[in-house]
Amino acid sequence: MRLTVLITRFSRKKINLLGFVFLIGLSSCVTNEMVTYLQEQEDSPYSGEFTPPEDYLIKPNDNLYIRVTTLDPSYANIFNAMGDQGYMTADEASAHLLSYPVENDGTVDLPYVGIIEVAGKTIKEAKQAIETVLAEYVTDASLTVKLVNNYVSVVGEVREPGLYPIYKDRLNVYQALSMAGDVADYGNRYEVSIIRQTDGESKVKEFDITDKKIIDSEFYYVMPNDVIYVKPLKGRYFAVNTSPYMFAFTAIAALGTLVVLIQNTRLLSQ
Question: Which of 54, 80, 159, 270 shows its CA 20 to 30 Å from the CA of 37?
Answer without folding.
Answer: 54
